[in-house]
Design a protein that fits this description.
It contains 31 helices and two strands. With about 725 residues, the chain is mostly helical. Helix 24 runs antiparallel to helix 28.
């Protein structure tokens, strides 16, 4: 089975379908002639009751008063020939239907590509012939007085991803059609009519055939799976990559392998034991198979059939069973939950399956006296994850990744107080390479907690963190509840808040940026969140340079959105902006204290010798204004970055100057953004104190200092 070749933008855009149209016309004429020969049903062909059709000939022979051996042979020959005319007609109809379906599919792909190119052009993104995108802002002579901001890197990457999806689909259509035509052509002298009459039908037939072939080979074959050579495994991986989103393949493969069979298969393939753990190119190949198999099983769980329900029930029941090899000790016999979770890192699993699977695994883990390190002890010396991410010993890792790809399922889990308490506060996450240590090595981040952060973000935002095309969605009450609960639970941990969760919480605060800004910068009656919890979590986020920057740039966007939307009392948005900057400044002080430049560099802040410490962050799709607000805040982010780099370079980490001096460029940028939006209001005589030259700057500077002082009071230091 050939691997799908992705088309280029130029190939799809310039695709000419004239020859395909001619082929359709020729095949249509052929089909009409065959219909005439078969039963006279062609358009404008022979009369339906005419004597020249195969059906008429067969009927006449059947009615003839013949006897003897010659009559029997003749009747059999005539009957077979008449049937073959019918099969030939049906096969020609299949080819015609396939070609017509192909033409429509390619027209749809071309149309999809054109729409995307036109759509992203509105954000000043140009798509090149190879599918890459670049920001293309009109020169000043064209733009005139318009303040046109360049697209962010995240917007460009999302545009490229949309184009890539269309190109992949077009390549898939091409592969399916080519394979179906070859399939029909291989059947010489056999007009069985078994071909498919559409791209959809061909995809279904091919998927089922591929699943039957590989399930039989892997489950019932004479060769043990760990003895399959790389050539065979590459062919299997190609089949998975081509068919992982084809229900005809995924359901057939899963159900033919069976629940326990699927688990034992991956256990045997990923780590045969006896000192033969795959390495190098073999491990890399298995890493690809793991991802494609995960996506295939995810697709299968979304097929609501009795066979798949039985497979899911068998997998869940086998979660408490250990799978190993003969002659190996108990430390190399992982539980079914560990194996299945290692196959859940990619794809979107059905929520019903995730609910039942997660409940069963949670109850089993809580029932173990030495949980959760029991997972690591049992799975020791077993590597279910051929990549360099983890060993697969902690089943929560793969489960969390699956939750992150199904935000509704994640929200349900983290909106359950008991489950959220356990996962965010009580559970002791262990180092998979040293399970008995009950904690990570210094500087080593745990994959399980990294995945926990992804799942938490999905639960509180409604977005898949691994989907670059995902955009902000309006929050449900349950998502708001998850966010508030996470703030409370993590704030209670203070300096013990897991570092792996800092960047995810920074994004989640940005995702709830309006509420966060109203709490950071508003007065008591405007607070939307618990201010103490928000301050403590902001402090913990600010310990990490990446999380710190994401948090601050997210709040830049929230402040800009407030400036653009506050119409009744414009002066309030200026005051809130200053107070929010002061709040963030205090959180930074608490996190960093009076550390000097060398200390910060040692902690990951900047790169010694380069002179560059922070760069403008790229991710914006999670923000309440999306790319629009990120573009409007782009200049602010640059100012913020320049301020921070200057502080580190000059070792002025926490001098006694006021907030205005430490955040000089950022506050000036906010003041300029506010004034450009509210200049008509500010220039009225009754609002003279907000005039651009002196008033607005003084107001936002004072508000920033007030915001820092209020934060100091919140933490009880003044």
């Amino acid at each position: 089975m050939a691997e799908t070749e992705k088309m280029t933008v130029a190939q799809l855009r310039d695709l000419r379908l004239g020859k395909l149209h001619t082929a359709i016309t020729d095949w249509k004429e052929l089909v009409e002639r065959l219909r005439d020969l078969h039963d006279g049903s062609g358009e404008g062909g022979a009369a339906k009751e005419g004597p020249t059709t195969a059906a008429h000939f067969q009927s006449a022979v059947a009615k003839a008063d013949w006897t003897g051996q010659n009559a029997l042979v003749t009747q059999q020959f005539v009957g077979k020939t008449a049937r073959q005319f019918g099969e030939l007609r049906r096969e020609a109809e299949d080819v015609l239907g396939l070609l017509k379906s192909a033409r429509k599919a390619f027209l749809d792909h071309k149309s999809d590509l054109e729409k995307i190119v036109e759509d992203v052009a509105k954000d000043n993104i140009y798509i090149h012939d190879d599918g890459s995108g670049t920001g293309e802002v009109p020169p000043p002579m064209v733009a005139g007085d318009a303040d046109i901001k360049p697209p962010t890197e995240a917007q460009i990457r999302a545009a490229e991803k949309r184009v890539e999806r269309v190109l992949f689909n077009a390549g898939e259509t091409d592969r399916i059609i080519a394979e179906e035509l070859r399939y029909i052509a291989r059947r010489k002298y056999d007009f069985s009519g078994a071909g498919a009459g559409s791209v959809k039908g061909a995809d279904k037939r091919q998927g089922k055939a591929a699943a039957e072939y590989w399930a039989k080979k892997l489950k019932d074959g004479d060769v043990k799976v760990w003895e399959l050579d790389d050539k065979q495994l590459k062919a299997f991986n190609t089949a998975l990559e081509n068919q992982r989103d084809n229900p005809a393949f995924t359901e057939t493969f899963a159900t033919r392998m069976g629940g326990e069979g699927t688990l034992q298969f991956w256990r045997d393939l990923a780590d045969p034991g006896h000192g033969d753990t795959p390495e190098g190119a073999r491990a890399e190949l298995l890493d690809h198979i793991q991802g494609n198999l995960s996506m295939s099983l995810a697709n299968a769980t979304r097929q609501d059939t009795p066979a798949m329900n039985a497979w899911e029930n068998e997998v869940i029941k086998a979660g408490t069973k250990q799978f190993g090899h003969e002659g190996l000790g108990p430390l190399a016999k992982p539980y079914g939950f560990q194996i299945m979770s290692s196959l859940m890192g990619k794809g979107t699993f059905d929520q019903g399956f995730l609910d039942r699977y997660g409940d069963a695994m949670y109850k089993f883990e809580r029932s173990k006296p030495d949980a959760p390190s029991a997972w690591g002890l049992v799975g020791q010396f077993t590597d279910l994850d051929p990549g360099d991410k983890s060993t697969g010993a902690d089943p929560m890792t793969g489960y969390f990744k699956a939750l992150s790809h199904n935000p509704d399922a994640a929200t349900k889990v983290f909106d359950d107080p008991e489950r959220a308490d356990y996962l965010l506060k009580d559970r002791v996450y262990f180092d998979e390479e040293r399970p008995s240590s009950m904690g990570p090595r210094d500087g080593v981040k745990l994959p399980s907690r990294e995945a926990l952060g992804d799942a938490l973000f999905a639960a509180g935002s409604g977005m898949n963190p691994d989907d670059p095309t995902a955009t902000y969605v309006k929050h449900t009450p349950e998502q708001d509840s998850v966010f508030r609960g996470a703030l409370e639970r993590l704030a209670d941990q203070k300096d013990d808040m897991p570092p792996e969760l800092r960047d995810d919480m920074a994004k989640l605060i940005g995702n709830h940026g309006t509420d966060a800004h109203m709490t950071m910068g508003g007065l008591d009656e405007e607070w939307q969140l618990n201010r103490g919890d928000l301050l403590e979590v902001s402090k913990q986020i600010s310990r990490d340079p990446t999380g710190y920057q994401v948090l601050n740039e997210s709040m830049n966007a929230a402040m800009v959105q407030d400036i653009h939307t506050e119409k009744d009392h414009p002066e309030d948005s200026l005051d809130r902006a200053g107070r929010t900057v002061g709040f963030l400044e205090d959180a930074r002080y608490q996190a960093i204290g009076d550390k000097k430049a060398d200390d910060l560099r040692a902690a990951g802040w900047g790169h010694a010798g380069t002179g560059t410490y922070l760069v403008v962050a790229e991710g914006v799709s999670f923000l309440p204004g999306g790319g629009h607000m990120a573009n409007a805040a782009f200049g602010l982010s640059k100012y913020f970055t320049e301020d921070e780099n200057a502080r580190i370079e000059n070792e002025a980490i926490n001098d006694k100057q006021d907030v205005m001096e430490r955040q000089r460029l950022r506050l000036r940028g906010l003041k300029d953004e506010w004034y450009s939006t509210n200049s008509d209001w500010a220039n009225r005589p009754e609002h003279e104190e907000y005039s651009k030259d002196h008033g607005a700057a003084a107001k936002i500077s004072a508000a920033a200092n007030d915001g820092e002082h209020d934060a100091e009071k919140d933490r009880g230091t003044s």
